[in-house]
Amino acid sequence: MPKNRTLFPSVARWRRRVLSRAVHRGWSWVRETGAVTAQHPGRLRFGRIGVGTRLAFPQGTVFGEPWIELGDHCVIGEQVTLTAGLMPDLDLGPEPILTLGDGVVLGRGSHVVADTTVTIGSDTYCGPYVYVTSTNHSYDDPHEPVGTQWPRMEPVTIGPGCWIGTGAVVLPGARLGRNVVVAAGAVVRGVVPDHAVVAGAPARVVRRWDPEKGWQPPLRTPAPVPLPDGVTPEQLLAVTDLPAKSPNSK
């Protein structure tokens, strides 16, 4: 009897390990198969999907694809919503509504809602759960529910090289310049100049680049040191394997 008590838990653990591995392998296969690329678009027929661009599976809500153009080497995370137009199956005319430049990254759970034109410049990186919209609800009539009033629409432009932090919201009419940093949780509207850092709700400029003085106010941390040219992946792995020096070592 003691042997049986030892045997049955071992069998249960073995079965759990086998099932766990099978589930993870199956889910990896589903994610790989369900990803959208130019070669494997699935049911989605974008106006353009560039070389090396990939939409991770599962995708969020996607409609109006003929009016959505995605540049080369974009990374679209899981559960990202991309929509053009107020609803599916509308004829939005000859021009694209939502345009992503080359190398754009949209983090998991982000939403880009383009009821009128939204343009995101090349090499712009968005953290998770960023919300970009060209539409906002109206509340002009105090006697009508806000949700039933016709919305206001204004184009949105995000310049190249921007970084938009987790949970940030970019509202209709926003125009972000080049290499703008948007802090996590910021709510952006209006015009943001090139090389600026904005934070808050509503977002305000908290730091800017001056060609003569540099960043104002000055950065509080030193700039990261880039890797020297010619460093190989093998050399980097070798560095990570080096033992840590003790505080007293010379």
From TrEMBL:
Region (Disordered): 212-250
GO molecular function: O-acyltransferase activity
Keyword Transferase listed: yes
Keyword Repeat tagged: yes
Xref: SUPFAM superfamilies: Trimeric LpxA-like enzymes
Keywords, ordered alphabetically: Acyltransferase, Repeat, Transferase
One Gene Ontology cellular component: cytosol
Residues in the signal sequence: none
Family note: Belongs to the transferase hexapeptide repeat family.
Database matches in PANTHER family: ACETYLTRANSFERASE C18B11.09C-RELATED, SIALIC ACID SYNTHASE-RELATED
Designated name of the protein: Acyltransferase
Organism listed in the record: Streptomyces halstedii
